[in-house]
Design a protein that fits this description.
With 346 residues, the chain is α+β, with helices and mostly antiparallel strands. Helix content is 32%, strand content 22%. It contains 11 helices and 17 strands. The protein binds zinc ion.
Length: 346
């Protein structure tokens, strides 16, 4: 056990070796799959469930992930089948192989309605209208005209490359629902803002919470406004959804999708809130000097250079912080001048 600089306790210094399971609580196992880009890996959870296994999240829809699963199936599951697939949210590392796993084991995919419908909505091949809508959002929020054409690509091409198919049907998970997995009851706690209706799975008896991407130990999960809902306030949704974890004891073992398991959930939630508060304050201070658009807030939020690879996430985060300030009454949206949306101090 070690304590990190932020006061979180990490029971393990490393992850399970590639292709092996590590039992983190009775009947609850940790499997790590490689992701060939940051954050480099995803943690999946396998729960002994009577005669079979319930798995939590699927890994990317890549040949190497399929091969890794086949090695686990060959000798890691004690001859017992996968009988249920729980998916926390629609993002590619979580849902990627969901359809394949479901067919491979004739097992149902369980997810929230919000995540399943979003996956179904995002996946179809994008046409010219969707590209134009993305470019309009970029232009309005301050991406320079000269670089706009560099972004004239389908907004879902990465998603489609990592999620070969969306399940044709699902079994619904809902916030507050209790489901039995093996010997224990698990409760669904919904996180919002990172994705529409992200399911976290809390087992009070085991003292464990599979939190997906909502409560990562080191980074704050991406919370973005997207071109498909350009006036949204996802940061408000994210922060208020964290109230849903109020009843989870501080010594609960938090099992994040990326990074190391930890104890100290409320310390972590406080740090995430403080992180966003600090960024919101920084933007308010800058707006007091004069109006800005979202791209103009990049130097306040990011140390890295923002280019083609990270523009979507960076722009989404910047707009999300500005919209939170508008909702709080600390910033106002000026009438668009020359088609550019500026924000001013309230
Ligand atoms: Zn995610």
């Amino acid at each position: 056990m070690s304590r990190d600089p932020h006061g979180l306790e990490h029971p393990w210094a490393d992850g399970p070796a590639q292709g092996t399971l590590r039992e983190v609580a009775p009947g609850l196992h940790w499997l790590r799959m490689r992701v060939p880009f940051p954050p480099e890996h995803i943690n999946l959870w396998l729960v002994e469930d009577g005669e079979g296994w319930t798995i939590v999240d699927c890994g990317l829809g890549l040949d190497e992930t399929r091969a890794a699963w086949e090695r686990i199936f060959a000798d890691g599951l004690g001859g017992r089948p996968v009988t249920r697939i729980l998916v926390t949210h629609f993002h590619p590392d979580h849902l990627g192989l969901g359809t394949w796993l479901s067919a491979r084991w004739d097992a149902e995919v369980w997810m929230t309605q919000g995540e399943w419908m979003t996956a179904r909505g995002v996946h179809p091949e994008a046409g010219a209208a969707e590209i134009a809508n993305k470019l309009a959002f970029y232009r309005r929020n301050g991406v320079p005209e000269a670089s706009l054409q560099g972004f004239a690509t389908p907004p879902n091409s990465f998603y489609r490359s990592m999620v070969p198919a969306i399940p044709q049907r699902f079994v619904r998970l809902s916030g507050g629902q209790s489901l039995r997995i093996g010997a224990h009851e698990w409760r669904v706690v919904i996180g919002r803002g990172h994705s529409p209706e992200h399911a976290c799975l809390w087992c009070p008896a085991l003292g464990a919470l599979a939190c997906g991407d909502i409560l990562l130990p080191r980074i704050s999960p991406n919370v973005s406004v997207w071109a498909t809902e350009p006036l949204g306030d996802p940061l408000g949704e994210y922060l208020s959804s964290l109230d849903g974890f109020a009843g989870v004891p501080e010594d609960t073992l938090v099992l994040p999708a990326h990074g190391q398991p930890y104890r100290g959930i409320h310390r972590r939630i406080a740090a995430l809130r403080a992180h966003h508060d600090e960024r919101l304050d920084r933007i308010v201070a800058a707006l007091a000097e004069g109006p800005r658009h979202a791209v103009g807030c990049f130097p306040l939020l990011f140390r890295r250079e923002i280019g083609a690879a990270n523009m979507g996430l960076a722009l989404g985060e910047a707009v999300a912080h500005l919209h939170r300030l508008v909702s709080q009454g600390r910033a106002t949206r000026l009438p668009a001048s020359g088609g550019i949306q500026l924000f001013a101090a309230a």
